Amino acid sequence: MTPDLSVRIGPLTLKNPVIAASGCFGYGVEYAGMVDLSLLGGVAVKGLFLAPREGHPPERIVETPAGMLNAIGLQGIGVHRFISEKLPELRERRATVIVNICGSTLEEYVELARILSDAEGVAALELNISCPNIKEGGITFGCSLTGTYDVVSAVKKVTSLPVIPKLTPNVTDVASFARAAAEAGADAVSLVNTFLAMAIDVETRRPKLSNIVGGLSGPAIRPIAVRMVYQCRRSVKIPIVGMGGIASARDALEFMIAGADAVQVGTASFVDPFIWTKLIDGIGDYLRRHDVARVRDLTGTIDTAAREKEWISS
Amino acid sequence: MTPDLSVRIGPLTLKNPVIAASGCFGYGVEYAGMVDLSLLGGVAVKGLFLAPREGHPPERIVETPAGMLNAIGLQGIGVHRFISEKLPELRERRATVIVNICGSTLEEYVELARILSDAEGVAALELNISCPNIKEGGITFGCSLTGTYDVVSAVKKVTSLPVIPKLTPNVTDVASFARAAAEAGADAVSLVNTFLAMAIDVETRRPKLSNIVGGLSGPAIRPIAVRMVYQCRRSVKIPIVGMGGIASARDALEFMIAGADAVQVGTASFVDPFIWTKLIDGIGDYLRRHDVARVRDLTGTIDTAAREKEWISS
Amino acid sequence: MGSVLKPGPEGILTPMPVDVEARVIRNTRLSSDYNVLALAAPDIAAAAAPGQFVMVKPGRGCTPLLRRPFSVFEVLRTNGRADGLTLLSKRVGVTTEMLFEAVEGDVVSCLGPLGRPYTAVDPPVEAWMVAGGVGLAPFAALAELLRARGTSVTLFYGARTSGELFYLDWFRDRGVRLALATEDGSLGDRGRVTLPLERALQRAAAREVMVYACGPEPMLEAVARMAASYRRRSEVSVERVMGCGLGGCYSCVVPVRDGPNGHHYVRSCLGGPVFAGDDIAWDAH
Amino acid sequence: MGSVLKPGPEGILTPMPVDVEARVIRNTRLSSDYNVLALAAPDIAAAAAPGQFVMVKPGRGCTPLLRRPFSVFEVLRTNGRADGLTLLSKRVGVTTEMLFEAVEGDVVSCLGPLGRPYTAVDPPVEAWMVAGGVGLAPFAALAELLRARGTSVTLFYGARTSGELFYLDWFRDRGVRLALATEDGSLGDRGRVTLPLERALQRAAAREVMVYACGPEPMLEAVARMAASYRRRSEVSVERVMGCGLGGCYSCVVPVRDGPNGHHYVRSCLGGPVFAGDDIAWDAH
Ligand SMILES: Cc1cc2nc3c(=O)[nH]c(=O)nc-3n(C[C@H](O)[C@H](O)[C@H](O)COP(=O)(O)OP(=O)(O)OC[C@H]3O[C@@H](n4cnc5c(N)ncnc54)[C@H](O)[C@@H]3O)c2cc1C
Ligand SMILES: Cc1cc2nc3c(=O)[nH]c(=O)nc-3n(C[C@H](O)[C@H](O)[C@H](O)COP(=O)(O)OP(=O)(O)OC[C@H]3O[C@@H](n4cnc5c(N)ncnc54)[C@H](O)[C@@H]3O)c2cc1C
Ligand SMILES: Cc1cc2nc3c(=O)[nH]c(=O)nc-3n(C[C@H](O)[C@H](O)[C@H](O)COP(=O)(O)O)c2cc1C
Ligand SMILES: Cc1cc2nc3c(=O)[nH]c(=O)nc-3n(C[C@H](O)[C@H](O)[C@H](O)COP(=O)(O)O)c2cc1C
Ligand code: FES
Ligand code: FES
């Protein structure tokens, strides 16, 4: 039996649930020589504003226990250069491109959505309303229920592409944001973006990042992210793209069992840039081993009933 | 020069800033034979309700990357047995006892505070309004600004002991909770309690904890906790007791530089039950090395100005 | 740290634990999953009683973060002086993987001895040790202690297959009778270790017997119930996930009987890991 | 993975990197902080050009979590075939500590070769390599390449003290001229390596010289400015914290000149680590 790895994110069907996370895979083209982009479920490209952006000065990252902080500040080439310089190669490589968009204003999100809807080769829009590293815009939408609702419904009005708001974990009740997104017509939600965090060099008493604070990602946050996916799953019916610290097929499956329809992988792909086939194959092996025909049948199958006792001669 | 390690938490002076975190050091007496309790800045004992509690069935903990989840469910002997069975030994060992109290209702907090104010040998009350593992009470106060305000001011009315509400990190804006606590008359705040999180065994698809969700602690959360202390420091003037993943003197200093007046250590003391003198000595060494006379002079001294360039022949 | 005796809060005398950076003296692989690791830890070895455990952490760093509990398997002696101990380890995760891969000279952080040991019996009481799989671990040390007292010792020992029954000659050499069971029938009874145990209980008639058990919890329950139904005392060593091993975290609880139907949770790192079989509220969860 | 050439997005041709679980062949400690680690990684060794780097991770687990960048120090050859490489490592943190402690047979995960190498010059242009401390790392391989082309090579090499000047005979044996400096004056000039460099530039008059530099950033800046003021070309290898080494994360940027006053950030893992000294906007941060 060859298990069916395809999953549906609203109107979009992905050939498997494994997506490269935004900001952790450049524009995808950087990896085109190393990784067959067409094998991935999707490629979420680095967050784009309308205009190019320089980002923050170094230091931009620092390692922390089982994680890392980043404050890149969304350095990027802007949407126009993306469309002219990167998208053609992504198309040629048959990547399923999810464009992560960032705005300082609601109008900027709308304008980005409009422009990208006219471009060829964009599969979906991920709305970055959750970047903790920049002052203006973005996360102010992501930390307000009405902000989230407004930006999603405004974008939905101007595009027929699937719209996936990306939720921040830096809130008291993430499920309420998933609900706001769903009510506004989001095709799916993705979560989590990074946790606002910081590290200080005690010898100099200076923050280790130029931006003082940054976003925590990596295995350290996985248990919190899994919990958030689980809460959202019990709260909304739309698809969920789960992420946060996934580093193995088992981790990906954990998110799916908690309630994710697909997953994204960021930090772990820095450590192992060839992780993609390992994840996809590992998921396939699991399905075969557990006699599950379709990966989508795993979503939300967590068994919260009492454990039974088993006796094996361990 | 022998640096002055004493710190002040409101009206209370601790001989040094290193406190054993609540729930991670039993009632203190368990360690009395191994650790000289009088050398610690303080001992925060396991969270107490009025009545004894059985807590959750196993499994109660699970290790995660650089951290652990717990859902103990506040098993405990209740305040009366604590006073009669544990407090005398703690007094005899000259421990500075901080009693962590939990209530299902506001009245329970008040009653606990009243009872403990009459007991001999209690140095301060830490209000656990942030335990993520139990359904009733506690965290519902900690996740509501008015709840926080109300419970702190109600407790303040009935006790002359220093009152230290312990804040949950599972909120959008922790500093607003520190402000609510300060306005209600809190003598200090402590933070962070654990992050609500979960882990799933993918082979059985069951949650690894009997309680399904639990609280994440340990080094994994440190960068988030440091950020929260930093934010609170810029928002309130009352003392801050910082914690979350401290495992070395350097980590403790990081919290102090971010804004903490004292620190607590939980998870790391499971790994190294003899950590206390290492932390205290390490802080002393740092002060000597940096020619700082008093540890309290470190609090909040983070230097957020631009870095200078240095050239050393590395 | 000396070896001061202190009353454990859960009501038992234990020597003060010490924390030792123990060098690996030898690592013997018994199979593709089992190994015996010899560690230089004289202070712990000298103080440990059979059934006690150590909290172990190989390597620095966060993987693993927490220590893990292991029974003291053998106490090693040079010229009669305890100077090392061994751990019998089964590879199931990150720590046991590292113990399996350890090489001479590596350092393993070792905190102990901890917990409540088995109660050794003297003749004419016979000692019946019931081990399931890696549950053999406390019984090498216990057998030595009992044999030194002249007590008659039988080991009931079950595993999946004969290749996972270890140290048989070691026990035979020390005059321990063996009653074996394998799930695949490759050695001894086909089935579970309770099979030869029950047969022996049926035949033991008036002999005084103390049953010691260590293994998976359903086995412990079956053994404890069986011993009780034949009116024999039993002591079982429970296996709980332990965060600290010292009574600090309350992770390691087992339900202990409280009157006929009630129970309360007792920390097995202090009140155990060895409990009287009758004390545990087997139905509680 | 083959060694297909691809155009790097930051505009340079690099061979496809491969990920190798490289065995430690040998670990030579040079001092209490420096070591040279020999790794079996034929595919990387065969493809690497001087100035390129590898992303390294010793051990499994989360400490360290991320790989770290290291220059390819020497390329090891057996019968003329590249089959290994060495890293010159200075102990500053968790990864370098593990590299310092590594023993034969350990495995180090090694991804490379990565980045833009130095541009080798041919006679009559002379090559002046300027190294500060562990900044020596790219220059063994570069010296070999240059000497093979018959290029005259001088190494300006500075450190805190003479005990931290390594491989001097190695370079002498290959016909490399040495100009040394130590901050404590224990060998060569007392002071910084820019001292002998400036003296040489003053005397070099009409000779054609390419200056290569690697070391702490303020040194790179000083060297680049000095070379420019004497109208010599320079190439510097910058040292940035790198999350991925592949262009994925944008952590490793350096400010590159954009007209007279402007600059933009370029990822040093793709556009570097070697940059023309003139290209970097030294004032930008
Ligand atoms: C008092 C006591 C004595 C023990 N003595 C021995 C011994 O002598 N030899 C030996 O091999 N093992 C012994 N164990 C079990 C041993 O502690 C676990 O096998 C060990 O913690 C696994 O660690 P790990 O990092 O390899 O696995 P992990 O990666 O932590 O876990 C792997 C799997 O094992 C399960 N697991 C982890 N810890 C335990 C546990 N304590 N009990 C049951 N399942 C667990 C996990 O849920 C997971 O499924 C003892 C346990 C106790 C409580
Ligand atoms: C292209 C390139 C080539 C390099 N080649 C070599 C080499 O050949 N030999 C060698 O010893 N080192 C080299 N380095 C530096 C090396 O990458 C760092 O020393 C290493 O990352 C430190 O890792 P760690 O885990 O030991 O220290 P960590 O625990 O990560 O950090 C310890 C301290 O070093 C600082 N640090 C960490 N990484 C860097 C970095 N990349 N640059 C500057 N400071 C850093 C941290 O801020 C911290 O203060 C190179 C760096 C680059 C970018
Ligand atoms: C260096 C870096 C850059 C990131 N940039 C973006 C971004 O541009 N847009 C975005 O939505 N998320 C961004 N993220 C967040 C990731 O997409 C992801 O949500 C987060 O890292 C958690 O997943 P992980 O633990 O697998 O890395 C970035 C993360 C990192 C580490
Ligand atoms: C096993 C366990 C039990 C805990 N019990 C309590 C408790 O009773 N009351 C409380 O306020 N916090 C409790 N905590 C939270 C800790 O006091 C502390 O806030 C948290 O663990 C973060 O610190 P750490 O990373 O140093 O462990 C508990 C934590 C753990 C790990
Ligand atoms: S293991 Fe922590 S209380 Fe028993
Ligand atoms: S190191 Fe990640 S982009 Fe350069």
Structure, described:
The complex is a heterotetramer, with two copies of chain A (314 residues) and two copies of chain C (285 residues). With 314 residues, chain A is of the alpha/beta class. Chain A has nine helices and 16 strands. Chain A has helices at 78-92, 106-118, 139-142, 145-158, 174-183, 222-233, 249-258, 267-271, 275-289; strands spanning 7-9, 12-14, 18-20, 42-48, 61-64, 67-70, 97-101, 124-128, 163-166, 189-191, 195-198, 200-201, 206-207, 213-217, 240-243, 262-265. In chain A, strand 7 (97-101), helix 2 and strand 8 form a beta-alpha-beta unit. The longest helix of chain A is centred in the first third of the chain and has 15 residues, at 78-92. Chain A is globular. In chain A, 63% of the residues are buried. Residues 307-314 of chain A have low confidence and may be disordered. Chain C is of the alpha/beta class. Chain C has three domains: 5-114, Elongation Factor Tu (Ef-tu), domain 3, CATH 2.40.30; 118-237, Nucleotide-binding domain of ferredoxin-NADP reductase (FNR) module (Rossmann fold), CATH 3.40.50; 240-285, Ribbon (Dihydroorotate dehydrogenase B (pyrk subunit), domain 3), CATH 2.10.240. Chain C has a seven-stranded antiparallel sheet with strand order 6-5-9-3-4-8-7. The chains are: A alpha/beta (314), C alpha/beta (285). Chains in contact: A-B, A-C, A-D, B-C, B-D, C-D. Chains A and C meet through loops of A and helix 6 of C. One FE2/S2 (inorganic) cluster is lined by residues 242-245, 247-252, 267, 269 of chain C.
